[in-house]
Amino acid sequence: VTVSVLYCVIIMLPKCSPIPLVRKMFSEQRERLAKAMGNPVGEFALYKGGGDVPRNSSDTCFSWRQESYFFHMFGVEIMDCLGAVDLRSGEGIVFIPRLPDEYAVWMGALPTPESVKASSEVEHVYFVDEAAAALKKHGCTALHILDGSNSDSGIKVAAPSLDAFGDFDVKTERLFLVHTQLRVVKTDLECAFFGALNKVASAAHVQVMQQCKSDWHENQLEAAFLSYCMAAAQCKCLAYGGIAASGKGPAILHYVDNNRKMESGDMVLVDFGGELHCFASDITCSFPCNGKFTPTQRTVYEGVLAAHDAVLESLKPGVSWVDMHLLALRTMGRMLRDGLGVIRGDATDEEIEKSGLMAAFQPHGLGHLIGLEVHDVGGYIDGVTPPRGKTPMTSKLRTARTMEENILITVEPGCYFNQVTLEAALRNADQSPLLVEDALRRDEVWNFGGVRIESNVRITGAGCLNYTNVPRKVEDIEAVMAGTKAWPQ
Amino acid sequence: VTVSVLYCVIIMLPKCSPIPLVRKMFSEQRERLAKAMGNPVGEFALYKGGGDVPRNSSDTCFSWRQESYFFHMFGVEIMDCLGAVDLRSGEGIVFIPRLPDEYAVWMGALPTPESVKASSEVEHVYFVDEAAAALKKHGCTALHILDGSNSDSGIKVAAPSLDAFGDFDVKTERLFLVHTQLRVVKTDLECAFFGALNKVASAAHVQVMQQCKSDWHENQLEAAFLSYCMAAAQCKCLAYGGIAASGKGPAILHYVDNNRKMESGDMVLVDFGGELHCFASDITCSFPCNGKFTPTQRTVYEGVLAAHDAVLESLKPGVSWVDMHLLALRTMGRMLRDGLGVIRGDATDEEIEKSGLMAAFQPHGLGHLIGLEVHDVGGYIDGVTPPRGKTPMTSKLRTARTMEENILITVEPGCYFNQVTLEAALRNADQSPLLVEDALRRDEVWNFGGVRIESNVRITGAGCLNYTNVPRKVEDIEAVMAGTKAWPQ
């Protein structure tokens, strides 16, 4: 690859400004857990940290990631640890692996109880092989361990091996439920870190927009985003498989190939978030790769933006997430009817909703809890949250919760012209009569692709706070892409 | 993060030029395997492809990677496949998962036997649930499966579940050994692809050197490298945890934190390789972050370069990798004695080698096989290759093979001032008398960090071919970093 100036585009890498991790975040979490468990004497919660994961049978491992429940309690980023919380006091104990001295040649100074205690501010640190004896010394008689499954993936949370803990009473009933619920409602320190990460990710999205050239391959958008987050804030990777989709690609909800050459006139959808200290951000922007919306692109985009804005105006403690989802679909339905004309002009909001038609245009839920995972835990908890809906319109929702102050959640309405779901709608006896097939099959609509607008917000006492700061209005996107407007303003 | 021009550096993203994957590569491999197995009638090799790997219990998976033995035979990058090779003819059969139609909304057009056959040029494609019946139809009576462990990681290669294959005779004795040996000696098509990938990775290293500013954080070097490879050739990730180490960091062999702020005067070591279609590249460059070598930096650097060049001049079929390793250590020992003066001037090459002292300066082996993994398989095979050495000087080698034409291997001598290994040498009765402790403990030596120079080469009929094209001479590095010389020339 010969680099010539003719073939180059310029990416501005920012000055590196690491985001500080405030250690008090974790002692606060331990105190919250102890309190939620009733501050019992002699009872401890025991956690297993994340291990290294090889790629198949090779000598190479995936980029290491701490396990989130463990991280939530201790904030320690060392592999193969155990951790315990004294549920009376909230004091933390971390058990680190005892590594051979020679590992120092490969890893640098090895972690010691002293160094980990100093850097993590966890109250006590021992080696893993001292765990049972240390717990006894600290007055532990009973161990609570996590016993439950992630409501998105269905995967059971890993619990520590109990071989060395035979002397303790083991309790599996409460910890998963209580700790999962605790992770749903964030602390101010968590929100502050999340906000700082969103600021970086927002700036990275602005860079992507500003640098985008209409003859790029999609993966160049990914390269620009990731390099910005790595350089600006030392993110090691994206929080999830990033999506850079152009042309018809945005209609494929998990398009991660990101390898198509774009063409002038394409709408582009970029869904990227940096990950830092286990925290995820998750932002989607949609824009025309040549920087100028066509009338049809503007109509669809502004319909999705209206849905996004309507939800943000309505979000507050006490509202049902299902209602927000239906509000977004109703708002987009009006655009499809009154703006694009692909739904019959005489169809009422109620008829559209009753038919389930909007699930063909937005086959995913309005958003999801976010925090230490991009799809954070606690969307559904048996006996605690409302159960998953059963209609095509609601069954895809990752939570049906009533909003509470300090929930972090994504708001991500989307309107897609997915030919699989639209053909099914055209065959559906309830939905087909509402559609104007000729209008829907026009090339500029049928092959439109799609638009998603996704922001990361915090539920506040009075409403919500949007941590995402990217141009959203058509005029702002066009001006930022043309270089005539700076962002943030 | 406010982006201001003052705080920005400019990274040139190249035009995207995807590297074509020639499908004949894989039918050739199947024919090679069939021949090596003796072209038996009715016997098939059965492989298990790679599955998705979740990050702990979350809903997020690591970046998906095909399993390398499977990829080597079929070149298919779809998860959860099985694959079979008819060992009489070398014909391939791939079995793809049968996915629900609704997945098309998330993944786009689902793979079908027809589409996979057309794109992979594998002779036959069925669904996984048809595997046993299809194998019978194709005349299979016996199945060979992989049964062995990776000689670097010790991890057993995954074999397919045999629940559905009860009617076939199962053979575990030969396939692992034969296939592993086959992967060691590359085909021309493999070498061509590897060379093209190295060209991109080399250009990315040149960009890193050219853009490096002496007040960068190390992770900005990683961002610049990765974004170049993603943009230039659609690499999805690095082939391994990349190293960007400055100051004393290069003495830590697996330093992957990459988060330190550099200081003018630091030597920098960057060990990065892009991964594409399972192929790895693995290149290390060492340079002063301010673009100008000090006399001490020049001495050490040129000693390592002399070792690198001496090995490249000697590498050819028939030479022992152990001898190449000893040649590199001997060459660097002379620099430490005659150039840097940290080994006594009257010490002979033989005395230095006999003492094992050089294992303190280079605690790793000279290099490793490379191909579909960064540490490719087949370094040691019981009964086939020379066994692992037992001395501190040779036991870290990842292979002790005699070189053969079309082996791909890294040549990576390094000289490190690692305080753990050097303190041990100073306490070692055989090694300490050879060291000039005062000279060794001088600040500019003791805190030097280290230098590694790593190239990726192919053993040819007459010698070797270096696929890595980066500035190596001190003058060239200084000129490229100063912007007074273009590279490649």
From TrEMBL, chains A, B:
Keywords: Dipeptidase, Hydrolase, Manganese, Metal-binding, Metalloprotease, Protease. CDD domains: Prolidase. It comes from the Eukaryota. Its EC number is 3.4.13.9. Residues 21-154 form the Aminopeptidase P N-terminal domain. It holds the Pfam family Peptidase_M24. One of its GO terms (biological process) is proteolysis. Homodimer. Belongs to the peptidase M24B family. Eukaryotic-type prolidase subfamily. This is Xaa-Pro dipeptidase. It comes from Neobodo designis. The lineage of its organism: Eukaryota, Discoba, Euglenozoa, Kinetoplastea, Metakinetoplastina.
